[in-house]
Amino acid sequence: MTVSPLHALTSRRSMKFLRAPAPKPDELDQILQAAMSAPDHGKLRPWRFALIRGAAIGRLADRALDAVKRSGDPRMTPEKEKSVRQWMSEVPLFVGLAQKIDHDNPKVPEQEQLLATGASVMNILNAVHMLGYGAFWSTGMGTYVEEVQEALGFDPLDYRFLGFLAIGTPACAMPEAVRPDYREFVTEWTGE
């Protein structure tokens, strides 16, 4: 059965529970190249990605979860930490997501740079799905703790860190997502 491009878009869903294998190198190239097709006012290409895989995932877990605990976040209970570490150990690939901020561009406001970065991430999510893998955009794991951002090479003065994509093979079957009717979110303006 041939799947239409529109069906591929409308059937995409977040999949938190992933396992190996991750996309093959040539597939990952295609996935990351899809990000380059995002709309981008001024051709700033503000998106930046850090690939984290193999033993680096354990090092990320140590660094990020310790940083979250030091930040005083009360949600990082021992049970939560154990759960996050277990989840991270199953995921074969994480992609750190950041927006490079062009502070001196009077033509492209920072919010447009952020939107372009979000569009590039959506292209990644769609490409992952179209190649038969799953992905989950997580803002846990210390996304809003500067120490984590800096550890990944994103200076908070020049980058806005946006979280991580977990990418791999779905670990379980997922029911089809129930989506709302678009008409609940649309009005028509006539100018009258």
From TrEMBL:
Lineage, opening ranks: Bacteria, Pseudomonadati, Pseudomonadota, Betaproteobacteria, Burkholderiales
EC code(s) of this entry: 1.-.-.-
Keyword Iron annotated: no
Family to which this protein belongs: Belongs to the nitroreductase family.
PANTHER family the UniProt entry points to: NAD(P)H NITROREDUCTASE YDJA-RELATED
Positions of the Nitroreductase domain: 10-168
Protein name, entry field: Putative NAD(P)H nitroreductase
GO terms of molecular function: oxidoreductase activity
Cofactor note: Binds 1 FMN per subunit.
Enzyme superclass (EC): oxidoreductase
Gene3D superfamilies documented for this protein: NADH Oxidase
Cofactor(s) it depends on: FMN
UniProt source species: Bordetella petrii (strain ATCC BAA-461 / DSM 12804 / CCUG 43448 / CIP 107267 / Se-1111R)
